[in-house]
Amino acid sequence: MAPSIDPSSNTQASALEDVSKVKSALLSADSSSQPSRSSQPTRSHTPIDHIIANNAGYTDTVFEGKADQAAQVKQLLSSKGFMPPHLVTAEVDWFYQNLGIDDTYFALESVETIADHILALFGAKIMAYTKHSNSLDIDLEKESDNGAVFIHSSQAGKSQAQGPQWERRIDANYLDKSSVDKAYRLETYRSAGSVSAQSQQQLRCYFLAKCNFVEPPPAPHSPSFGDIRAVSDKTFLTKASDNTLDIYQSIMDQVLRRQGPVIEMFEVEGSRERRIVIGYRMGTTNSFFSALSDLYHFYGLFSSRKYVEHFSNNVTIISIYLNPLPASNSPPIEHSIHQVMKEASLIYVLPDNPFFQPALAENTHAVQEATYAYVGWLFAQHFCNRLGQAYQSLRNLLNENDSQQAAILNEIKLRFREETFTRQSIQEVIENHPTLIRLLYVHFANIHYPGGADDQELVPTLSYQRLVKEEVLDDNQMYDRIRKAANNTHERQVLEAFLFFNKAVLKTNFYTPTKVALSFRLDPGFLPEVEYPVKPYGIIFVVGAEFRGFHVRFRDVARGGIRIVRSRNRENYSINQRTLFDENYALASTQHLKNKEIPEGGAKGTILPTLDANPKLTFEKYVDAILDLLIKGQTPGVKEEIVDLLGKEEILFLGPDEGTADLMDFAAEHARARGAPWWKSFTTGKTAATLGGVPHDVWGMTSLSVRQYIIGIYRMLGLKEQEVTKVQTGGPDGDLGSNEILLSVDKTLAIIDGSGVIYDPVGLNRPELVRLAKARKMISDFDASMLSPQGYRVLVEQNDVKLPTGEVIPDGIAFRNTAHLRFKADLFVPCGGRPEAINISNVNQLFDSDGKPHFKYIVEGANLFITRQARLELEKRGAILYPDASANKGGVTSSSLEVLCGLSLEDAEYVESMLFKDGKPTNFYLSYVRDIQTIIGRNARAEFDAIWRENIETGKPRSTISTELSTTLNKLSEELEATDLFSNEQLRSAVLGQVFPLTLVKKVGLAKLIQRIPEAYARSAFAAKVAASFVYANGPNASHVDFYKHISTLLSQPTPPAAPAQQ
User: Fold this and answer.
1) Do 864 and 658 meet the contact criterion of CB atoms below 8 Å apart?
2) Cellular component GO terms, alphabetically (predicted)?
3) Parallel, antiparallel, or unpaired for β 51-52 and 262-268?
4) Is 139 helix (H, G, I), strand (E, B) or coil?
């Protein structure tokens, strides 16, 4: 039962005005509702196997030569002469006998080092005496390649706000950097005695030793890989008791089965001591050891000893021995220990949270509140209405179809987004309004805390008390409180962003017991229309210690790639922070236009790692956090059911994008391990041999559609490809770039890729380009001897390069970033590069002095390479341009059909048909790939012809027609899903017979395929196929009569054959 707040502590409203009063009220709660401080430990929630004997669990080090060593130290100090001779014996005896330093120290250190430390302590005493201070500051250290020793004076239960910050230093220099090749185990003890009679401080000793693992280390997936005796440090094995080994083995087993931390608590018989044991995968969090100290100090606990053990199977286990501070007003350890366990998972996710600083402020936020503040801080950075009414008024006055006015508007938009709400200004608002942030947290927790106030597992902590005791304001009351508290419009908008966040969250893993990152499923209704004119269907916001990320989709059934946005330096990272969601939104929107012919609507995910983060780790955390929202939690204490305001099952389909091509296997296998029935379709781009994926680059899927548009231009204009000159971004190392080289026979003048720029006015050597494309190497590996005298190559690392014309290039990076604006050719094919590389601000550089474009034909293979206004300007000046949403949809089609295969085949069928046998693809696999290639070519040609025809008939720009086709098709598809056309069995079979590739129909049979796939997916596939075939045949402005005729045509088509009886 939760204790009530002492009435004498003041009213609730006034207590809210001062967090220290609230904390005081809580900590002085009526003792009648709490166990006596001297009572036996409460065991109502502690399993019997989690009550352990009162011993250390480790063998204490006993140094037999301690007395002889002390004598040698006395002799050495006497000979040095720095200490008065008559004090030497007393100082050495005090050091050896009274301070309570563990024998590990004396066994590790030399006589010379100990003598130096005793001299340092003697000097500290003299310093304290001259300052008339009762505190004795002791800081002793020694580091070597094999380990380190740190000894310092420490007050129990207090985090250090200043000074050496030993634990943070240990984290940064040893624990965070540990790997199987170089790991350090840690033992740390608090001395029993105080440093002097005048001070209550004790000594805290840290002993770090380089791990010496049992040899040989077991191979992953081998039986001994999870055996603690086969993967331990040898010293640990000699010191750990059998019971400790059994406990750690159990923890290790769980760590190897999941992504998140394993957190267990053990009671110690006959005492109030509690031991927290935490296991996790090595390297998956930083600053965790020191952050845990801040956590238990917040609840009035101190540690007598702590251990950090690393194992050669990449498992780390931390063991902390916790005790209550004597005569403390904090909640009893019997209660607070459960909250420490709950909040340790939040500390694991965000160990370095600027809003949780118990060492710096008495009235700091509790961990849950501080985590909420951190998430709201990031949310506000992305979603405060940065443009506002002034921008909208200006936008209404200007003509966005005028290139100069559009350029001005674009510059103003960029400036507003950079300067209106900075990270620092938002943080200051949060720090200046702790009471409002606390109320906003209660507003959030009141909805999403599983079980709410009736949860008997909760304990009387600050967060819990606020949830069940404090005033819970409704939306209007919160708005009113914010309006009154905010000092200006800026503060009001920041604080309102928190409320928008609360109202947008439909479900979250915030209160899931173990997690690796925080995830929030958001209703996109909060997005300002001025910035985001088309509302997405759903948004997922993911927050981790070393990254943030989004997933945006425009329909319930949607698919798109996951992109890791890398930052070259801190300035670039700052830019990426500001633009991450905008880039994600634009990518998903483009994907939605591109996905017009397939069941899935458009979606995209983005991950922004910090500068020093491991991109692979951030992806793994991102995926696991999203799965928390998709899979119903059914494991008590690990993955429990969450509050779901959405009320319906959701399935996401993820694909590869920049930086994630080799990570799709993990996502599929992890979804499978977590019990997702749709694991086969969760990701596309999986390894073909082992998971049945259809890699775009190997089979040239994206390039097939891009080539259809290039060939279509040649076909319509009667051009000979060998005579066409071309400039290409995206080099021979990439998917699109390499296949564009391999599939073309044109005269390529220039290629721009990540390594630099290469140009030859007579055409780059084709065989050399083919060699690089087959080897997937950048143009930095191009044989420069094959360039003509007028040709050149400038790499990004080069400066002051003199070109054959005499021009000097001062900066290779700057030249690479703008080189696409300087070349001229018949054809321009962007196959790679950053979004908006050509925009309204620089598009004029693509025209010569007569106003003619540098390129006659542009087929946009790379996503978002050219902005909408820039496309219109290029087309107005005469360029024939096909945008990305039309040209590069081949990969989208391939991925969709990969998803369809996973949904259509049962697990055994999938393994038999799609996985390679003896390293070779099955006949079914090869036949299915051929079907995909045929469908890609057919769809691309149909859209190319539709756009060309519409341009001839209406004179509209092709990029505009492309968007109109996509918009009309998507709208029609959504309308068809809402009709009962799908219920017409004859029409359904006729249409879906064209959706399922023939190879799949022959194996399973159409009727059975329709039964197997989810109905929502089947409806979407049906609607998309009907809409695409109708719009491509009749244009975006066709009549209802045209549609009736089209349906009649579909009904007249024969039904595909059933599967053979033996299959």
Assistant:
1) no
2) mitochondrion
3) parallel
4) strand
State the Cα–Cα distance between residues 779 and 755, nearest whole angstrom: 7
Looking at 307-316, 320-329, 969-978, which range is the least confident one? 320-329
Q: Torsion-angle region of residue 287: left (phi > 0), alpha (psi -120 to 50) or beta?
A: left
Amino acid identity, residue 910? Y
DSSP 279-293: EEETTS-SSHHHHHH
Q: Count of CB atoms within 10 A of residue 414's CB?
A: 13
Residue 957, preceding peptide bond in cis (omega within 30° of 0): no
Query: Would you state the torsion angle of the CA atoms of residues 41, 47, 53, 54, taken in this order, to the nearest 10 degrees?
Result: -30
Catalytically active residues, by annotation: 604
Residues 6+ apart with CB under 8 A from 1052: none
- Its sign, for the CA torsion 150, 154, 159, 165, is negative
Most distant pair of Cα atoms in the chain: their distance? 112
CB count, 10 Å around CB of 910?
18
Asked if 43 and 268 touch (Cβ cutoff 8 Å), the reply is no
The residue among 248 and 695 whose pLDDT is bigger is: 248
Ramachandran angles phi, psi of 538, nearest 5°: -155, 150
Q: Are 518 and 508 in contact, with CB atoms under 8 Å apart?
A: yes
Radius of gyration, CA atoms only, the chain: 33
Nearest to 859 by CA among 709, 970, 730: 709
- The residues, ordered by sequence, that sit 6+ positions from 28 with a Cβ below 8 Å of its Cβ are 6, 9, 329
Residue 186: beta bridge partners?
A: 208, 308
Higher pLDDT, 813 or 190: 813
Look-up of token digits 């008339």 = 132
DSSP track, 251-301? HHHHHTT-SS-EEEEEEETTSS-EEEEEEEETTS-SSHHHHHHHHHHHTTE
User: C-alpha 715: how far from its chain's center?
Assistant: 45
Instruction: State the Cα–Cα distance between residues 187 and 289, nearest whole angstrom.
Output: 12
Range scoring the smallest mean pLDDT among 284-298, 355-369, 527-541, 754-768: 355-369
Is residue 1028 within 8 A of residue 969, CB to CB? The reply is yes
Task: Please tell me the chain's helix, strand, coil percentages from 3-state DSSP, rounded to the nearest 5.
Answer: 50, 15, 35
Backbone angles phi, psi at 762, to 5 degrees: -95, 0
Cβ(458)–Cβ(2) below 8 Å: yes
Alpha carbon distance 531, 392 (integer Å): 9
Mean pLDDT of the chain: 87
| Residue that is written with structure tokens 């006055």 in the block | 397
Average pLDDT value for residue range 209-220: 93
Please give the torsion angle defined by the CA atoms of residues 834, 835, 837 and 841, in that order, rounded to the nearest 10 degrees: -150
The pLDDT value given to residue 247: 95
Q: Which DSSP state fits 7?
A: G
pTM recorded for the entire structure:
0.81
The answer to whether residues 940 and 704 touch, using CB atoms and an 8 Å cutoff, is yes
**Residues contacting residue 871 through CB under 8 Å, at least 6 positions apart:** 881, 883, 957, 959
- Exposure string of 544-565, with b = 16+ CB inside 10 Å and e = fewer, is bbbbbbbbbbbbbbbbbbbbbb
Q: Tokens for 428?
A: 């200051």
Say which residues have a Cβ less than 8 Å from residue 1053's Cβ, sequence separation at least 6. Answer: 990, 993, 994
Which position has the higher pLDDT, 312 or 202? Answer: 312
Average pLDDT over residues 606-619: 95
Angle at 163 between CA 162 and CA 168, to 5 degrees: 85
Residues composing the chain: 1063
Which of 361, 322, 367, 325 is closest to 347 using CA atoms? 367
Please say if the pLDDT value at position 45 is more than 80.
no
Mean pLDDT on 294-321: 94
